Fold each of these.
Amino acid sequence: MRRAENISGNLDWLTVLLFFLIALLGWLNIFAAVYDESVYQNIFDLSLNSGRQLVFIGASVILVIVVLVMDFRFYDTFSYFIYGAVILLLVVVLLFGREVAGSRSWFEIGPFRLQPSELAKFATGLALAKYISTTGFRMDRLSHQVALFAIIAIPAVLIVLQGDAGTAMVYSVFVLVLFREGMSPILLITGIFSAFIFILTLLVEDHVYLYMGILAVTTLAVFLNRKKIKRITLIVAGALVISGVIRSVDYVINDLLKPHQQNRIKAFINPDSDPLGFGWNVTQSKIAIGSGGPWGKGFLKGTQTKFDFVPEQSTDFIFCTIGEEHGWIGSLVTIALFVTLILRVIYIAERQKWRFARVYGYSVACIFFFHFAVNIGMTIGLFPVIGIPLPLFSYGGSSFFGFTLLLFILLKLDAHRTQVLVH
């Protein structure tokens, strides 16, 4: 039997508070990023990003109410339907959407714009949770693993076809969810190892020494393993992976990536080689953050962002405003809020007795973590600039709605965690 519960009494209010605190700080900093002291500007002015962001926040409150009043079983029952509907949107926008900044990712009807790829994240999380929680599912069965990767790959491929490789990269983080649910760590280790080799190949000019060094380390690691395994097989497999990754670098960079994406990789490797060209964004971002010092220049007192030295200061590089105007202390507080939110989501996921809710909870945590880590990494030069917004902080309606849905569907499921579910 299922017994009714008081949603307001069981809602995780700490997470709700963190949500609104981050949204409020984001709104204030969006205004600070575009503020011009020579012209009178009102933070509520709808012609400014800050005014429009406030509308998005208000609309998200309505969205939250809708999510919370829905029967929590709706998200389980209609997971595949929601996923299918979003996939259809991704196909339609690819055919008829508007192209913005080289990506055909937007629907535009009058003043209203929607980016379906932001909605695909929560839909993919629901579909994964549904499949993994299905009776008879086994993570060690190859057919089930193929189905899981298909669920992840379909939206990612469609988003790549739209020209938005940065957003598509977000879907790689779902592998961590599968690892939490019992998938062998070999895949995760191989992925991290391959990414490491890829970056090293970009940094090291003489690939012969790279081959020799990495293969030597791989061989040593295999022989230090105390388990009785086929060492020769592992060494050969490692050599093939190393060779494949190194040989793929030139093809990926020169043939698959567009010119502006190639420049982002060059800026990541050596932004100082062309500080007035492709290295401009990262260089100016570092200057803005560093100029804030420990305490910052003060709210609305920033200069690097005000005079457009830093591009996309309301979206991709919003963290620069924090660093410049609020300094190291403000940056630390902002990071602490995000870390607390992510840890809270993990805690919520772990306390679920229903596998569907737990898997979805880890999907939420991983997506928030990826966006948080990559966005801040972009602004300080630790990651290539790939157009990843800071969750609930960067300007944008589609992004804000997507993260709101992600988080509050989890809170709705969590509010019913003590109910007995009949499968």
Note: The two ends are 11 Å apart (CA to CA).
Amino acid sequence: MSKPGRYWHHLEDGRIQCDVCPRYCSLHEGQRGLCFVRKREDNQMILDTYGRSSGFCIDPIEKKPLNHFFPGTPILSFGTAGCNLTCKFCQNWDISKSRETDRLMDQASPEKIARVAKKEKCLSVAYTYNDPVIFLEYAVDIAQACKELGIYSVAVTAGYITAEARPEFYQHMDAANVDLKGFTESFYKKLCGGQLKPVLETLKYLKEETDVWFEITTLLIPGQNDSEKELEEMTQWVVENLGHEVPMHFTAFHPDWKMTNLPRTPALTLLRAREIALKNGVHYVYVGNVHDKSGSSTYCHHCGQILIGRDWYVLSDWNLSSTGTCTQCGTPCLGKFEKSPGSWGSRRKSVRMSPYLL
């Protein structure tokens, strides 16, 4: 299914320019942007994956990863195909790098997705697997349908979006996990085919201009973005520009896509990154893609009490009051919390839209 896209304009040479992401692809009739899903057709921009998905499943919210947004609750997750970055280390390359539109096997209207989420008792819907920025119109329509039913919307994104498109996209999101892939322009150019600056602008926009709850994830790749200098600069920038309270996740790389020649990230690298972030004033720092209960749990930054214990995606300790404060010293823990944790655990449930007659 196709739908007219927004954020584009005509150029003097007859092409049209896509203004959704900082690539600013300029297209002749019939051409597609690098993301593959935004296409010039009949002298306008269209989104040709509207209403189609590469799959739906119910995950724990911590898998996004979001540790401070209704912990323990289930989230209906889905993506489409394509991406506006070209990360050589992509962990979802079979979806994000796909040029096969026939892999979009499951069809669903925004209203149906919202109703299925409600029926399955999901508190939220996640736009994930590939970047929702490239299917902005579909994501926004789903978010609006979800809001009518009291369902939250979560963007799992690289934050690679223009200043023109940011306001509409994030206006409809309740939470986001932003993938800060590295902290040098050379890393973004060499390994991602993009730029660092727009991502930093997105993070500052989220902090200064929105009420979106957001957390940051960095996949640490041995010898590429894991130096002590880069981690020092990144975490200092986060504290200075976003504050102490934005949770950071450092996750382990595994060889994939076009970077199968590198080793997995040692657990010690993740722990070192966590120590650097805590030293520089980040209050909540997590490690991921490894089994580390201590590094996955939430602690009070004032008294050190464990607030939320996590063993992979299973919650254990819960020492938050009904108002989200430490039960021992009363210090607030920033985030969005219910009075008690969810109990979804580590389950993963595949969902097909077609059987639902809603």
Note: The chain has a mean pLDDT of 93.
Amino acid sequence: MGETTLSGPPHPILENDYASEWMGIEVLSLSDGHATIRMTLRQEMLNGFGMAHGGMIFAFADSAFALACNPIHPSPGEENLITVASGVDINFLKPAYRGQVVTAVADRRSSAGRSGLYDIQIFAADALQAESTPSGAPGELIAEFRGRSRTIPKK
């Protein structure tokens, strides 16, 4: 499936996603089983060491995971289903700092029945580097997130 052209809210799950809104997440691309997002690290996203709080990087990756797991336009019969995390692992490889632009690239690796497996790579780049290569390399790899998903009925 091809990439979706973004206009208005890029994905229905973002309409009421106040956490992603607070983080300032920008959706760069969406397609079936894929999402690329980015945000700029702000002071209130840092830990006591002056680097990105692990929880912020986790939440950022989790937003990319959710976007990759859930279809933008559900097929008939899928309108009352949602896909959620059943488990995740994250490995922090390098720190990121205030003012850096972080990019998460989420890709589905496997899907069987109601279960899926997704890998999300998180990169960090200085703002000038990120602006000069918006479609090129998103920066230095800082974390890897693996998510296991489960499709369930919407309540």
Note: The chain has three helices and six strands.
Amino acid sequence: MWESMNKVEEIIATTRLNELLNKKEEEKQAKTVLWVLAIIGAIAAVAAIAYGVYCFFTPDYLEDFEEDFEDDFDDDFFNDEDQV
């Protein structure tokens, strides 16, 4: 009878040990995923800041180009003589 109790205790101890090992593995996986997401987030933040700085310092040549021709278009298209 004592032999069977020892085996039961041994099985319980083995089960607890396996549970502890599985918890540690799950924690490792969770930490790895967290680190990967943190690195991806940091890269995305740096890219967004770089794009914002680029847009801020890049002059808008198209806006200047359109302003130069707005007045000429109005004067040439609508003449006072063409009105009926």
Note: The chain has a mean pLDDT of 78.
